[in-house]
Amino acid sequence: MHYSHYHEAICLVTVDRDQISAHYGGSPMDTFPKPSEKRRAQHRRRTGLMCINLLWTPRAPQWSGHTGLYFDISLPVVEWMADTSHAERQTLFVKLKSRQKSAPSLTAQQWCGLPSAVRSILMWTKNIHGKQWGKSVRARIHIRQTLGREATNKEAKPTEGLFKHISVEDIDAAFVAGHERLRIWSMQCVAYEEDFQRGFVPLTKCEL
User: Fold this and answer.
1) Pairwise CA distance, residues 19 & 78, whole Å
2) What are residue 93's DSSP bridge partners?
3) 136: exposed, middle or buried (Cβ count in 10 Å: 0-12, 13-18, 19+)
4) Could you tell me the strand order of the sheet in which 93-94 lies?
5) Under a CB-based contact definition with an 8 Å cutoff, are residues 139 and 163 in contact?
6) Quick one: which of 64, 134, 156, 180 has the fewest CB in 10 Å?
7) Can you give the pTM of this predicted structure?
């Protein structure tokens, strides 16, 4: 663990997504907001932001020095590290610098053990069904249903079709059966962005 030496009143300052978006730029809805070039220059090229929604990823780290887990549906390829020499989507700065390593995917039993608000219609299954980023999952389920086999890499990344006939129930059943799994990244705090955290203090009108 890496702990900050700053005053606790600074370390414990919290802001919401709307405040971050208004100050640093980028969409308040995105996990990886993308500030404009003007905002990046204004804040000294601070391009890497990661805003984790605990409804999606209930085991994410919430305090500096803490470890945690991040869920997604993409295949793990390389480690993520909070380093500006890496690709923009791999650069993480929100209160702490975090290294992410691929961990074993969520098992069917672990999927069934997730809180209903995370697993059910409210979050993962609903959004995999409705969002563009869930198309690869829907395509794989379609191939299993129609051809009785696993999809090839090409079939899992179709250029045509939305596969919206795959229902929320179909998606949940695929996870329950272990045919689909949430990818897990273990998050380890390796440094603390103290100056970045200090920048949040005026947003909350704290007097230190």
Assistant:
1) 31
2) 97
3) buried
4) 68-72, 183-191, 96-103, 93-94
5) yes
6) 156
7) 0.69
CA 172 to chain CA mean position, Å? 20
Hey, which residues does 178 pair with through a beta bridge? none
Q: Which residues contact 194 (CB under 8 A, 6 or more apart)?
A: 4, 6, 10
With a CB cutoff of 8 Å and minimum separation 6, the contacts of 174 are 137, 140, 141, 144, 180
Helix axes 168-176, 135-147, angle to 10 degrees: 80
Distance CA 149, CA 156 (A): 12
Tokens 């949430």: give the residue: 182
Under 8 Å between Cβ of 49 and 96: no
pLDDT in tens, 97-136: 556 677 788 889 999 998 887 887 558 999 999 999 899 9
Q: Tell me the CA distances in angstroms from 4 to 7, 47, 84, 127, 190, one per residue in order.
A: 8, 22, 21, 37, 11
Of 184, 208, 206, residue with least CA distance to 73: 184
- Sole residue written with tokens 């006939």: 165
